[in-house]
């Protein structure tokens, strides 16, 4: 009986000791597993954060480059607009060379009058003005007379018996008048109309004839060479302009 009790006591003590050892072993092992897992997780998170930071830095640099590029393009576009506008204004004012489809008028003395010994020294400024007005009425876009560009402020007048265009003397023949039309079709219409021109017929009174020629090639007209003088115009007061 005593032996049996001893066996039971020994068994219980063994179970208790084994249970305590199992609990202690588990308590020791669990923190090691948890710490190892947390360390790797932290390292992975740190790597991800670094990658995200690098990505953000690249995006910031890319956006800064784009902004700089846009600002440069905007500045250049504004300058280009100003240059284009200035070019258009110069073209409208006749300050640039032009070329296009058109016709050529040649004013020359009548050959028969030369045989009779009748001298023709100059062409009437009034006849030239009428001819220019008729050309404009029939769709002329640009005109030059004796290689002198005709613009809105051009003056054709007689000075001491000599016809001058903005100071340029017309003292020799033949006199060539170049005319540029809007396009080839307009140039063809202009050619046909000038062949039956009334103003051209009036040159016969002064022993002159006007020959109309339609060249196959483009016509070139030079830019206006003289200084354009503007009258009745003054700078605007900046204060008044700002308040308006």
From TrEMBL:
It holds the Pfam family DUF881. InterPro entries: DUF881. The keyword DNA-binding does not apply. It comes from the Bacteria. Keywords: Membrane, Transmembrane, Transmembrane helix. The keyword Transmembrane applies. The chain crosses the membrane at residues 7-25. Belongs to the UPF0749 family. This is DUF881 domain-containing protein.
């Amino acid at each position: 009986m005593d032996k049996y009790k001893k066996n039971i006591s020994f068994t219980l003590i063994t179970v208790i000791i084994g249970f305590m050892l199992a609990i202690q072993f588990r308590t020791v092992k669990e923190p090691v597993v948890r710490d190892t897992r947390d360390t790797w997780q932290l390292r992975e998170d740190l790597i991800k954060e670094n990658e995200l930071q690098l990505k953000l830095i690249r995006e910031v640099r890319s956006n800064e480059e784009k902004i700089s590029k846009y600002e440069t393009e905007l500045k250049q576009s504004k300058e280009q607009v100003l240059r284009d506008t200035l070019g258009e204004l110069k073209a409208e004012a006749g300050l640039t060379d032009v070329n296009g489809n058109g016709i050529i008028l040649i004013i020359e003395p009548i050959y028969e009058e030369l045989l009779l010994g009748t001298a023709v020294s100059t062409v009437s400024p009034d006849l030239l003005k009428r001819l220019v007005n008729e050309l404009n009425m029939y769709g002329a876009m640009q005109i030059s007379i004796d290689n002198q560009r005709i613009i809105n402020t051009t003056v054709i007048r007689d000075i001491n018996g000599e016809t001058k265009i903005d100071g340029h003397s017309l003292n020799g023949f033949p006199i060539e008048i170049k005319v540029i039309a809007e396009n080839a079709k307009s140039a063809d219409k202009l050619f046909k109309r000038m062949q039956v021109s009334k103003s051209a017929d009036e040159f016969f009174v002064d022993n002159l004839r006007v020959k109309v020629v339609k060249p196959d090639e483009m016509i070139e007209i030079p830019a206006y060479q003289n200084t354009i003088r503007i009258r009745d115009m003054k700078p605007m007061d900046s204060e008044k302009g700002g308040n308006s």
